[in-house]
Amino acid sequence: MEAIGHCLSNSLTLSPFNPLKQSPNCCSNAIPLSHGRTLPTHNNHAYKWKKASVRMGAVVGGEDEETKQAKEMAAAKRRWETLIREQKVKVLTTKEAGYATQLSNKVLLDVRPSTEYNKARVKGSTWVPIFDVDNTADAGALSKKVTNFVMGGWWSGSPVLSYDKNFISKVDSMFPKDTDLIVVCQKGLRHTMIVATSQSSHAALAALGILILMSTRRSITEASILRSLAACEQLYNAGFKNLFWVQGGLEAADEEDFQREGAQPFKLAGIGGVSEFFGWTDQQRAIAAKEGWSYSLVFTGRLIGFIVLADALFLGAQQFGPLLQELRSR
């Protein structure tokens, strides 16, 4: 168990994204000093002191909130490690999980969002996502999706996700509490965009051990979470005691470990966006190293085609300007 605990602690490292780093806009809510007005002399000092206090309060308040969230995440990690160390949640490799689902009556509970589940899934598994794609189309949701796209969604293909508050009730309606549940997600550590529409939603996510960057100007939060372990903790607290966690998720699985359904290999179910199109992901590089140049040739062709198309559009734009001027002169 010491080895398992050590291995788990290594697997629980946070994303390189630093949640406690001050944003350049951290003082955006402070009232700027007016450069075009002069206050009466006897009030100048008090006015400036008040402004400085407002600014300092905004910064310190933000730091306190972020520090609080970081502590909640650290506490969640300790709880998860305790669940593993005390074997309240047992650890399985992907190969062991494959044997267990094929040779016994253990249930494989897939907690991934639909974008990953639809690409590749284990035959006979039960799908109950703890987070799923946010499909709302109101103005606020569209703003969140645009923000997610600008912040890297265009590259990674990661959608905006929302926490399903009915996750436990759905699982509870499907299985009795003594069922052997093997919980799996795509990959242990996830870095994703989570929708939190209210203060209560933030509190609920924090209870799951999800690190939240609070912002007064946007309700999208960055989260670094272990989805499957967060699900295990929620299930254990709900009374499910025969729980198993697949370390590394489906991304660590070989094709022979499970019977697969879907068009993509398990390792590629969690990628998307421009990086997937051009083959610039770690998962695709690993496959290319095994399969050789024939696999890379497709992505090389896409890159060359993109360069040719971009060049043609650039040259066309250069020719279009003089042509337009000539037409106007006539």
TrEMBL record:
**Which residues are in the Rhodanese domain?**
102-262
Q: Which CDD domains match?
A: RHOD
List the residue ranges forming a coiled coil, or say none: none
Task: Give the Pfam families listed for this entry.
Answer: Rhodanese (PF00581)
UniProt name for this protein: Rhodanese-like domain-containing protein 11, chloroplastic isoform X1
What organism is the protein native to? Iris pallida
